[in-house]
Specification:
With 133 residues, the chain is of the alpha+beta class. Helices cover 27% and strands 18% of the residues. The longest helix is centred in the middle third of the chain and has 11 residues. The termini are far apart. The relative contact order is 0.27.
């Protein structure tokens, strides 16, 4: 299977729900809640700037997984999970969370440069700066 590096950007308000969805898909816990914090592009942003979005990067995603994420974001697919048995989420909130995803990959439309900063800049976003060490 070919690997298709992917970046997914989600609104901060959906990070918890999407972490549950991705865990139910077998992609590990806290995919988004531990993802990089992102905010609106602002030269005065600091490490204390509240995130508006989260970024998850998967450099080992398969083309099938990338296609599934795109279908989920379009509202055309959802993994076969018994949401009634999945704590903290309903099927409706899983679908709404999935539709909030922006999926970028080498297999589909993206910015000319394949790096997170360029993709964020194209969306009017930036990483929340790391604290000064």
């Amino acid at each position: 299977m070919a690997q298709v590096p992917c970046i997914i950007i989600v609104p901060e308000a959906q990070a918890d729900k999407l972490s549950i969805v991705f865990q139910a898909m077998g992609r590990g816990p806290n995919s988004f809640t531990q993802g990089r914090k992102v905010c609106a592009k602002d030269p005065s942003a600091t490490f204390e700037t509240p995130p508006t979005h989260r970024l998850m990067q998967d450099m080992s995603a398969t083309s099938e997984l990338e296609a599934m994420w795109r279908l989920m974001a379009a509202g055309d697919a959802m993994p076969q999970v018994n949401w009634g048995d999945t704590p903290g989420i309903t099927e409706g909130s899983a679908i709404a969370a999935a539709q909030s995803m922006s999926v970028f990959s080498v297999a589909g439309p993206m910015q000319t440069a394949w790096n997170a900063e360029a993709i964020l800049a194209g969306q009017g976003l930036q990483f929340v700066p790391d604290p000064e060490i």
